[in-house]
Amino acid sequence: MKNKKHFIFSRSVFGVPYIVFLILFVVVPLFIIVIKAFSFKDPTTEVVTFSLNNFIKVFTTPTNYPVFLDSLIIAVLTTVFCILIGYPIAYLLANKKYNKSYILVLLFIMPMWINFVLRTYATRSLLINIGLNPAEIPYVTIMIGMIYNYLPFTILPLYTTMLKMDKSLLEASQDLGANNAQSFIKVVIPLSVPGIISAATMVFMPTMSSFVIVNVMGNNNITIIGNLIQSQFNFQLWNEGSALSLILLIIIGIISFFSGKLGKEQEKTALW
Amino acid sequence: MKKTKLVWLPLVIGLLLVGCAKRYDKTLKVYSWQDYIDQTILQDFEKYYKAKHGLSLKVEYVTFETNEEMGRVVEEEGAKYDLLCPSDYYIQRLIAKDLLIPFDFEGETHTIVENYDTYASDYIKDLFSSQETPDKEGTLHSWVEYAVPYMWGTMGIAYNTSPKNANVKAEELTDWNTLWDSKYEHTFTMKNSVRDSYFIALVNVYHQELEDLAEQYENEEIDEVTYNTAVTAILNRTDSASVTSVKDSLIALKRNSYGMEVDSGKNDIADGNIDAYICWSGDAVYAAELAAENNRTLSYVIPELGSNIWFDGWVMPKGSQTELAQEFVNYLNKPEIAARNMNEVGYTTAVAGDAVLEQVIDWYSCEEDGNVEDLIPFDLSWFFEGTVEEEAETVIYVDEDTFGILKAQYPEYTDLARLTIMKDFADKNSSIIDMWSVVVSTK
After folding, report:
1. What is the pLDDT of residues B41-61, one digit of tens each?
2. Which of A59, A102, B99, B392 is in Cβ range 3.0-4.6 Å of B388 for a Cys bridge?
């Protein structure tokens, strides 16, 4: 008994590096953001006080609303397009009939091996060369950049969900007289809902703050929340930037709460 | 057991630290921009120092990305560095916050940075010493008390000499206002930075006033100094009416532009995606090299009603090892060293002198065997006068294409009267940043 208590090298020891990392780089920064967001430094006396000034400023700046709207539109459209494009591909990839050698999987995962900033710059040059000018149609070029970047993140969770899908259910539906389309709609789609939800959250959340893609693909003609936060931090406006970050975090939190609820009703196969 | 182990730890660390410190007699910590110095010069200075004082020295070169980042480190972490290299407006801010130690230019026996006195261009020295900033108590200080200029340049427009869009005309780009013309829609980029866009919008807002001034200067009703002072005052206006007008003007400019950029513009103009590029002179030189690889020729112009001249300078924060720091700055002001730095970095050094002149001739002169027919003379005497040997030729003969780029390396004498230093926004900083956020967020 005594020995057991003194045995230090239990399995939980392996978790320590990660816990330390988590506390240092997730929990502490989060605390700093919350503190900064709710504090205000008087420019003349340099006294720091608790205040809601930063939030008031965010919501009383009229130009911020179009920015929020743009962020939402871009995030929603990216998510929808990514799923529309990614779903059929994931279905093909997961089906052994079409994908025997995994070369297709490789092709879709390969872009993820290269840093996204490099990929984005390359995409931009490519689009300009074929006549899609970010100065004239910034939304189109931004959407292409976003979809291109986030498509692998959509395919992956969909693919894993579909791989795990019980094929006998499909066979059963056909035995009971459903045609291909019917069994796809009534069996495949409902069974892949957890995958769709986790794909949607994995795309939606980061797009709201993907300022690099928006900058590069839109020549800074369009601004989303991520850009605002970045420029405020650039100007050393830590308090206002933190308030915006917190707002973004809350928006994402609410959305993932609801999608999590949706996902719970389904089988737990989601990545997220 | 555990306790004894913990006692060892600081001892070991302490020993390690002592070991590190022992290796060099002295360490000089320089905090500056990336790729802003020829790294071999640091080693040469270490050797030079060893030969002169018999002490081993290590120069540590640490980099920052923005003045604000550097300022935060200096303010919050205190005496960590011996030398900093902030930009003009930030030197002003550091003086105002009383964070710097003055240079020893009037030492009892000699000035420690005598090479600056001897070799820096008179134009630069005059301009720098005529800038004044109040400290915390309100006493005015000339910038030269606290800072030694390092690199400098101008802001202007680099353009493609054979533009893709036929509406873009070189002779029209001599006026900033052209960029607001709908003919120029999507043909140029602007800087995604408030300090580099603000004064351009001021030219747009106070165009008539600036035109009148330019006319008076041309008719010799006012002299150079008066003209420059007046332009400087206009391009530094930060009253709330000006800020509001600038906001609208910048939004219009943004809508007319190809986009805002901080570093993609070089490639865009080199690739021919845009025909004009608002840029710093150093980037114009660099973009011209890139463009030449794609068989495009770029030229550079400083628009006629006024533009910005910028400096980066060496300053010593409180707690600096002043003797050592000044010796290093003095070393950097040797023309041979300055020429090497200029060759590596590409920006224009504040130092003149024979070695720098030779470097410039080597880069730009198109003269062959003394034949100057069909070549344009470019007079650099205003910069080099008094620092080079008397018989040295300060006129460089160049062809038309080279002329367009040499203008980015050194402005012409006639440009100088309308080049102004942009001051710190000081107490207007936050209202101007708010204005800029609105510009950035507006489509």
Report:
1. 999 999 999 999 999 999 999
2. B392
